[in-house]
Design goal:
106 residues, five-stranded antiparallel sheet, elongated
């Protein structure tokens, strides 16, 4: 929320893509570890699109820039075999009761 727009009932969702897994306890909001409002749901067996989904419900309205971070662990040993640089990208979604769903691809 770099534009300081009021977002009511804000929720972030982010699918963890294949080849990675969420590191429990690593989720932070503005540098502070968070557990309340946080859910990690592992993907169903056979799901080839993700290994799980992180959802975070803000306990208060969002009114300012908010930085969310978490760690993932690489689970595919072939990634290490190339002895090079690998970039993992993902898309997080933000929605609220007074805004349209938006996404950020990084």
């Amino acid at each position: 929320d770099e534009n300081n727009v009021l977002i009511k009932d804000a929720q972030i969702t982010d699918d963890i893509l294949p080849g990675q897994e969420y590191v429990p306890g690593s989720f932070m909001v503005n540098g502070v570890p968070v557990t309340a409002g946080l859910a990690y749901i592992p993907a169903a067996p056979g799901d080839t699109l993700k290994t799980g989904t992180i959802s975070y419900f803000f306990s208060e309205d969002v009114t300012a820039k908010t930085i969310i971070t978490f760690r993932t662990r690489v689970t595919d040993p072939k990634v290490y075999a190339n002895n090079g640089s690998v970039t993992f990208r993902n898309t997080a979604y933000l929605n609220g009761s007074n805004i349209e769903t938006s996404s950020d691809y990084d």
